[in-house]
Amino acid sequence: MTCFDDVAKYVVAAVEKEDRVGDLMIAGDVFTPIEMAEIFERVTGKKFVDSFKSFEELQKRIAEEKEKGNQFHVDLLGFSEATYDSRISLPYIQNDEFPEIKPCNFENWLKLNYSEK
Amino acid sequence: MNSNKLSVLIVGATGKLGTRITKHCLESSKLLVNILVRNPDKNIPLCEQVKQAGGKVIKVDVKETETLKDVTKGIHTLISTLDGEDTLPGQLALLEDGVKNGLKRFVPSEFIVNYKEYKVGDSFAYDVILQFREKLEKTPVKGLHVFPGLITEIFMDWIYKPGLHQYLTRSRSWR
Question: What is the pLDDT of residues A88-117, one digit of tens each?
Fold first, then answer.
């Protein structure tokens, strides 16, 4: 997970290198969903509610919403489903190529942007 | 003085990511920044900064692909931050223009999770990206593909949407 401003910094740092081409894999933070929830709850004071207990439960809910014709929910839940597809995980991280960039981790980003909400 | 700088063209420079990329490019002593925008009034100070730094502000709507003629002339690297349904036709038109004008590098609007395990047709979410990457790889223009994983701001907007439920039991790492 990476915030917009850090994405922009890495893009510019890579573009400054005239011959830098190919893939650039970067990340401001790496964590499990449980770790993410713990950070979120600690910083914002909000609780994650109504979590799904299994991937199958999530898929069942998507099917139910599809049946009801609630496309909005289908889209949102579909995105959630997609984030649990292990194929989307970055196979390696290349932050070290640009050591001058110190990306903001999720906890600090939340403190800056969401702790008042 | 600008002749030693690498000339870049940022497409969609007044958007959320485009604005940030443009600002950081303007802070670089190595880059000559040009921007392509649909509506310069959306961010007048940014457009003024680009002009003051010696760059061009090109007002074009990428939907009107015929108006993109020669926008890449003299450009080394194009950075696209296009979003939505105009992304594929807009980028293809820009690529065609780039091939004609000797563009060296194209940073497509991807900025997403790892899609490389997917093929066109596997997922609607990645089809536009994959289709453009296939086209790009058949040209002399080199691609620079940026994978930041989930974007924090987009993710947070997403989990704050009403009616959304989180599934948090699987322990795979998110990047």
Answer: 778 899 999 999 999 999 999 989 887 654
| B79 contacts on A by Cβ (under 8 Å) | 11, 15
Tell me if chain A has a CB within 8 Å of the CB of B124.
no
A117 and A73 housed in the same domain: no
For residues A51 and A80, state if they share a domain. Answer: yes
Tell me the whole-structure pTM to 2 decimals.
0.85
User: Residue B165 domain-assigned?
Assistant: no
* Strand ranges in chain B using DSSP code E only, listed in sequence order: 6-11, 31-37, 57-59, 77-80, 105-107, 142-147
Q: A105: domain range?
A: 1-30+93-117
Statement to judge: residues A1 and A47 lie in one domain: no
Statement: residue A84 has pLDDT above 80: no
Note the pLDDT tens digit of each residue in A58-74: 788 888 888 988 766 67
**Which residues does A79 contact at the CB level (< 8 Å), separation at least 6?**
B158
- Judging contacts by C-beta atoms under 8 Å, the chain A residues touching residue B156 are 113-114
Q: What is the ipTM of this complex?
A: 0.90
Name the residue among B46, B100, B30 with its Cα closest to residue A17.
B30
Q: Are B104 and B142 in contact (CB under 8 A)?
A: yes
A71 and A36 share one domain: yes
Cβ–Cβ below 8 Å for A114 and B142:
no
Domain, as residue range, for B143: 2-159
CB-nearest partner of A34 from B25, B111, B171: B171
Nearest CA distance, B55 vs chain A (angstrom): 16
